[in-house]
Amino acid sequence: MPSTLLAKPNINNLLSATAMALCSAFCPRISTNFRPKPFSSFPSKPLLSLSFKVFSSQATDASSQGPLILMLKSESKTGLTCFISVYGTIATRCYLTLTMIMLNVTDKFSGRVGFLGLGIMGSPMAQNLIKAGCDVIVWNRTKSKCDPLISLGAKYSSSPEEVAANCDVTFAMLADPESAIDVACGKNGAVSGIGPGKGYVDISTVDVATSKLINEHIKARGALFLEAPVSGSKKPAEDGQLIFLTAGDRSLYELVSPLLDILGKSRFYLGEVGNGAAMKLVVNMIMGSMMASFSEGILLSKKVGLDPSVLVEVVSQGAISAPMYSLKGPSMVKSQYPTAFPLKHQQKDLRLALGLAESVSQSTPIAAAANELYKVAKSYGLSDEDFSAVIEALKAKSQDTA
Ligand SMILES: NC(=O)C1=CN([C@@H]2O[C@H](COP(=O)(O)OP(=O)(O)OC[C@H]3O[C@@H](n4cnc5c(N)ncnc54)[C@H](OP(=O)(O)O)[C@@H]3O)[C@@H](O)[C@H]2O)C=CC1
Ligand SMILES: O=CCCC(=O)O
């Protein structure tokens, strides 16, 4: 009997793994093609990373038709107690139902939260915090973008300095290294308002040096710093399904984890400041090259008389399938690029990733070629289109050479 199962951050994986492990332990005769019922009724959001212990069980012999009842209990450091019951009936097939009851949920952040930068990503993130009941103060360079959030209950402050002074923790979601530095360290920047006992969480995608610089300024004021760039785009931001790549002050990470869990589906703590930025740039370097390569494939398939929509379908069923291809492919085939991740930001990330590679003499010829293509796309005025519009740069290149 397994006495301890370490749960992964995703609750569905957790429940599936728990069910399967218990099932195989208690029901040795269950056929190998056993399929558990989908756990769609369980929350898809991560709740906690927990260790489960069997605290009560009643199982009949696997060969009988009787019920299997198993209770697991876990208590987290934050006082959350979680019970999982597993019921099974063994016959020709086994049906499993998992029931999870969450009790004594105390894992929440009660301070005031600042949010700087209300673009494509920042707006839905701030909105999710407000909807979750957080006390939020917003600021954005273009003030009108604050209005929808103020209608939802946010307060407004007229500078990053004021936001940081009035909040326990301040998040920043800005375009690039320059704006991240300006908003944090510039005139009336967050650094001027922050102080001991407060925290600054930069979720913008920036390079390692920028993150370290902001960290130093925040630390010099006696406050705490966490970098926390995100994987996931507009829709995951709206749905609270982002992936956080955090690094920096561990105590601030622990403090804001309940907020990250409102905004995201998982979070990684990667140690020293710079590791989160580096991880994010590596991920986006891969993504930028993938999109450039996918664009070439779509155009080549069309040139040789194939239906690119069929290519998208074929790709989606094979080993190279990726949500990104299924999501963007159909609109790319129609030459439509509704902006979720602006092309200018993808090119910025490739540029920064190439800098990172240069700093350690790592060869990245594919990313370098992709970067050139995004630069061409920018020169065609596609900066604010979705990054999938990079395909237009290839269309133009083929015309040049025809
Ligand atoms: N969109 C996406 O899918 C994802 C984006 N990211 C990253 O998140 C960050 C934000 O992205 P996204 O929301 O898409 O970008 P947007 O371009 O939609 O928003 C950028 C934000 O930065 C502000 N800003 C830009 N320049 C300055 C400046 N000089 N001073 C003050 N504020 C400034 C903008 O203010 P204003 O409204 O006044 O222009 C706006 O609030 C970027 O680093 C991006 O790479 C990460 C994951 C996914
Ligand atoms: O930085 C942008 C990332 C977009 C995504 O992860 O889908």
UniProtKB/TrEMBL annotation:
InterPro entries: 3-OH-isobutyrate_DH-rel_CS, 6-PGluconate_DH-like_C_sf, 6PGD_dom2, 6PGDH_NADP-bd, HIBADH-like_NADP-bd, HIBADH-related_NP60_sf, NAD(P)-bd_dom_sf. GO terms for molecular function: glyoxylate reductase (NADPH) activity; NAD binding; NADP binding. SUPFAM superfamilies: 6-phosphogluconate dehydrogenase C-terminal domain-like, NAD(P)-binding Rossmann-fold domains. It comes from the Eukaryota. Residues 274-393 form the 3-hydroxyisobutyrate dehydrogenase-like NAD-binding domain. Pfam families: NAD_binding_11, NAD_binding_2. Keywords: NAD, NADP, Oxidoreductase, Stress response. GO terms for cellular component: chloroplast. Residues 112-271 form the 6-phosphogluconate dehydrogenase NADP-binding domain. It catalyses: glycolate + NADP(+) = glyoxylate + NADPH + H(+); 4-hydroxybutanoate + NADP(+) = succinate semialdehyde + NADPH + H(+). Catalyzes the NADPH-dependent reduction of glyoxylate to glycolate as well as succinic semialdehyde (SSA) to gamma-hydroxybutyrate in vitro. May function in redox homeostasis and play a role in oxidative stress tolerance by detoxifying glyoxylate and SSA generated in glycolate metabolism and GABA metabolism, respectively. PANTHER family: CYTOKINE-LIKE NUCLEAR FACTOR N-PAC (PTHR43580:SF2), OXIDOREDUCTASE GLYR1-RELATED (PTHR43580). Belongs to the HIBADH-related family. NP60 subfamily. This is Glyoxylate/succinic semialdehyde reductase 2, chloroplastic. The lineage of its organism: Eukaryota, Viridiplantae, Streptophyta, Embryophyta, Tracheophyta.
